[in-house]
Please model this.
Amino acid sequence: MNGPAPAASAWAPSAAPRFAALPPLALYVHVPWCLRKCPYCDFNSHALRGELEADRYVDALLADLELALPAIWGRRVGSVFIGGGTPSLLPAAAIDALLAGVRARVPLAPAAEVTLEANPGTFEREKFAGFRAAGVNRLSLGVQSFDDARLAALGRVHDATEARRAAAAAVAIFDNVNFDLMVALPGQDLAGACADVAAALAFGPPHLSVYPLTLEPKTLFHRHPPPLPDADTAADIDDAVREALTAAGYVHYEVSAHARPGRECRHNLNYWQFGDYLGIGAGAHSKLSLPDRVRRELRYRQPRQYLEQVAAGAPVQQATQVTREDIGFEFMLNALRLAAGVPAALFGERTGYPLATIARELAEATARGLLEPDPALLRATPLGRRFLNDLQALFLRGPPAPPAPGGALR
Ligand SMILES: C[S@@+](CC[C@H](N)C(=O)[O-])C[C@H]1O[C@@H](n2cnc3c(N)ncnc32)[C@H](O)[C@@H]1O
Ligand code: SF4
Model:
C-alpha cells in the first residue's frame, strides 16, 4: 500500500482490553434464604420452608468456589462479603466451615475485611460471638427502623426492641459495624425519620447505609403500593438525614453510604471502583477480568436448582463478555456513585481501554455541568449528584447493562 497507513486506531471496536495488571479481586457469597420474604424486597431471597440444610449449602458453596478457581488462579482476595438473604440464619459453625474452606482454597489478604449480613430477627448474642470467632470482622445489621409501627408496615420479622438488642450486641462484639436503615417509609414523617437516625447514632456504628424505600418491580409493594410520604417530604428526609450524619462526623462517601473517616466498606468500594468480584452461591453475580476480556457470570437463582447444578459441576447459568461499547457505561455507573469520584487513570486500569473510549460522553457531561471539568478526575458535580441517573445515562450505549452493585446492592 502506498502512503501512510490510515490512522489505524489501536482501539478498533473489536479490540480486546489490555490490562497492565488485573483489578483487585473480592469474593461475594450469597445465602438465599430468609425467615420470610419482605414485601418490598427484590433480592434473590426465599422464605425458608422447613429446616435450613446449612452443611449441605456450605459444601455446595465450596464446591462452587473450587469450580471457579481456574478463573482466579493465583489472585489474592481482598475482602469477603457474606450477603443475602439472611446469612445470620446459618449457625456460627457453618460460617466457620465456610471461611476455613475459603482460606484453604484462595489466598486471602492478611487484613481482609470479612462482612456478614445479619437480621435482628435471627439475633442471638452467642451466635454473633461465634461469627466473630469464625473470622467475620464486620457485621452489617438490617435494622431498617427503630419504630415498631414502621417495622410492621415493612413486614419485618423483628420489632424495635429486637432491633435495639441486636444493635447493642453488634457494636459490643464487633469493632466494625454497619446498620442498614430505610427511610421515606409508609406513614413516616420527617420527625420519625430523624428519630430513627438519632436512635442509630446513639449506638455509634462506624458505618450507616441509608436507603429510601423503593418500589421494586415484581414485589408485593409494587403491586399494592403502601401510602408513602410525598416527594417534598421524601426530599426533606433526604436532606435532614445527610445533615444529621455529617454533623455527627460521618462522611457521605457514596449515594447511600455514610462512614466515619477510614471506615468505608472496602468490599463495596471495590465494586464502585470497578474492581473484580467472584460471586458464589445461588443467584450470585461475578465480574472477572481475564488478560483479554471481561466476563460476567450469573449463577442459578433457585436454591434447589443451584444445589443440583453445583452437584453436576455447572452452577453458572449465564456467562457473557462485557463489550467495549458497554464497559464505559458500567464503569461510570459505579464510579459516579462515589462522592469523591475516582482518578481518571482508574478508567484504563479497570476497563483495559483508554479514557478516549468515552471522550464524547465526558465532553457532553462536562458541558452540561454534570461532571467536574478536572481532566485528572471523574467526579459528579453537585448538579450531577442531584441528577445522577441522567448523568449515568449519558454513558449508555446500546441495550441497558446490568444494575450497578450499589444502593441496596442487589
Ligand atoms: C440483603 S438486605 C440486608 C440483610 C437482611 N436481609 C435484612 O434485610 O435485614 C440489604 C438491605 O437493602 C435494603 N433494601 C432492600 N430492599 C429495599 C428497597 N426496596 N428499598 C430500599 N432499601 C431496600 C435494606 O436496608 C436491607 O437491609
Ligand atoms: S429485605 Fe432482607 S430479610 Fe427481607 S426478604 Fe429481603 S433479604 Fe430477606
Summary: Residues 119 and 378 are 36 Å apart (CA to CA).
